[in-house]
Amino acid sequence: MAAHGVGFDADAFFSEAAFESPVDEEGVHHSFSQLIQEQTQDLDSYKEAIEMCPLETEEKSKDDALSLSGPASSVGADSSGSAADPLVERWSSDTLRVLSSMPSRTIGRSRGAILSQYYSRTMQLCRRRQSHRPSIHSFSRSARPSICGYRVESDAAHFEAEENKKEQLINNLQNLSVGERVRMLKAIPLNLAEKSELRRLASNKTIHSPSPHEIPCCSHFKDYIIIALRNGRYSWLSFVSSMQLWQTALKTVSGRFGTGVLSYFVFLRTLFFFNVFLLLVTGLFLVVPQAVRPPVLKKTAPVHFGLELLTGAGYFSDSLLYYGYYSNYTLQKPCSNSCGSHLSYNMPLAYFFTIGVAFFITCIILVYSMSQSFGQSFRVDRSKGLLTIKVFSCWDFKVIKKSSVKLQCENISTQLKELVAEVNRKEVKSSWLRCLFTVSVQLLAWFICIGSTVACALAVYYFSEYMHKDLIDHKHSCSNSSQTAESSGSVLLKEASLLALPTVVSSVNLLMPGFFNTVAWMEEYDSPSKRNYVAIFRNLMLKVSMLGVLCFHWLGRVAVQHPKCMDLQCWESFVGQELYRFLLMDFIFTMLDTLIGELLWRLFTQKVLKKKRKPVFDIARNVLELIYGQTLAWLGVLFTPLLPAVQVTKLLLLFYIKKMSLMMNCQAPRKPWLASQMTTFFITLLCFPSFLGAAVCVTYTMWTIKPSPSCGPFRGLGTMFQAGKRWVEDLATANTRFKWLSWAHAYLVENPFFLFLAAGVFLIVIYFHIQVVDGQRKIIELLQEQIENEGEDKKFLITRLQEIHERKRPISRRIRTMSEESSF
């Protein structure tokens, strides 16, 4: 009798229904207590019928053999109606009377209890109708099964009392307005036929039904307005739902490939929205004002088409794409004669605060998304009983188009396969020798992966150092040369050499995940989800090591050590060009991976090996590529304000290319598995290793590294951070009333204690939210365990009742019953 459920991934995207929170338990228990008191009063009238008495006739004994069986009968019963298993336990009619009188069996489906309960509620509603309208969320929902009335004859007085309650409920429903009556009928836990009967009786039993000519015109007009507003609201909700980006494509992916692959595309859509936000902020507050008032340039570099699109140098160097193009003065535009003043825009201050506010808002959105995802995964998605909801109430009856019906069937079928696989998956207990061997193999695999990652990081480090020295030597040779102009061949070679480091790093990011998958073949994991998490951690280790080496190269060598040796007039624009090249090469190598790893491998498998098998979509590799590219975009927004536009274009193309390749070249996982927390895990990786690392690097650049003296909005300053301090000092000098701003800036902005304090408070809030979610999860687990224990208690009590009844029966009847059971 104890129900055992499984957890299901009801992500915000692919779960249609909302589940009730356990915060409503207090109201439910209050309702149950009220109904138990009502049932106790009703049971006092026929208490004599509940007492057990010995059976005296043989017919009654035969009836006992046909009575409702115990828990074992649900397993051993034959569908053809043949002779029952002799081991099946049969309950006597007296035991059934006791069972039918239990409050837990009468609360959920007893019409008398339901009518009595909602009679009292409609009375309260009528009394409070003049003051305010009660909320429908305050009504409890009881849905316990009942065997009330099963082979138990109802008392005539009890039936008459039930009819009186029904009559009183109809009278109270009649006194309610139409909307309140509909809401009350929806909340009553009766079947549709009984609800229709109550609605019909409440509607027909009216004292006076006015004719249409007697209804005033204002009432007609009011009804028309309400109907029009309601239809407009429904149309707007339908339009908003249809305007969700890639909604149909995501449903198709979910139906064919499951929630694991779907989580990748949902994560890609999330990154797309983040970059659209960054593009809007930098475009409105930096790019558009500077484009309206462009600076005066000295002499533009000669145009060399071709590699400039890949390197971002040449023509793009003196454009809105990079940091060096932006002005370090206040942009002013003369106003009309009526206003008598000028419109001014402080570009250095706008640049500083735009980047800072953009990162701050992104951080808030990330933390909020992560907290929401944590709550969805651990509070709702892991709650038991969702399998029953998915089986019996997941179909959307508003779907009528054939294509939508087919898509929904595929989606439900795939999710049920994942649930069945999760239910059937059991932890196999192995011997200690087998466990020791498995752990040794896994440790060896991790040692190989960590060693190869360290080797790749060292290789990239020394190669970046070699390319850096080569660039310095090239600058010295050009400065010492007597030639006035470089030849076209040397210019082309110089531009091509700028792509060497991005090509090497992208090649490592392309080849190493395949090596990790090869090493993973010798490991043994219990579930595909665990295998995916291990692959994600190994790819994350590789990406973090690559980005760490590159950040040291850009902010250590280029920005601090050798900006003059490299003859760089604007090292910020050079770092921006590097980030542009890395982002573009990452996209190119991702397309090569899609072409070689999916398309050519499918053709080789089907044409050469003559197998129908297709490659499986590599979630770990593709997700870490997205995180790597997004980290580059966040690092480069300070040096390349238009880099989010490049990232938006990249993600837009990547979605359609990956989706087309997935449909053509990939197959669903051979073993279905439930990605219950994949989206939460991806958001967490995006927040802490990716965004936190990018924010630390940008903050370090703005607080400590000296800007270039001849370009950019912060030229002539010791650090970028001093732009705010200079603006506050100028404002206090111009107007003495703003002197307090300099004090506030010195103690609240320049003082690092305030920054650490704000970060500490922020982390404390995150910690408390995680603890609250974890506490709610534990409470749900305890409540589920309590429900299972109550089921076991009921089985125990029923068995004890049957044993007591058997002891009270005469010995002769027990011998006759045992002989009849042995005859089977």
What portion of residues belong to β-strands?
Answer: under 5%
Strand order in the sheet with the most strands: 1-2
Could you spell the SSE succession in H and E letters? Answer: HHHHHHHHHHHHEEHHHHHHHHHHHHHHH
Number of strands: 2
Q: Shape, please?
A: globular
Radius of gyration: 37 Å
Mind summarizing the main beta sheet? Answer: 2 strands, antiparallel
- What count of helical segments does DSSP give? 27
Query: Could you estimate the helical fraction of the residues in percent?
Result: 55-70%
What is the arithmetic mean of pLDDT? Answer: 76
In the predicted model, the low-confidence regions spanning at least 5 consecutive residues are 1-33, 42-89, 132-154
Class based on secondary structure composition and strand pairing: mainly alpha
How far is it from the N-terminal to the C-terminal residue, by CA? 27 Å
Briefly summarize what is shown.
GO terms for molecular function: mechanosensitive monoatomic ion channel activity. The protein has 824 residues and is mainly α.
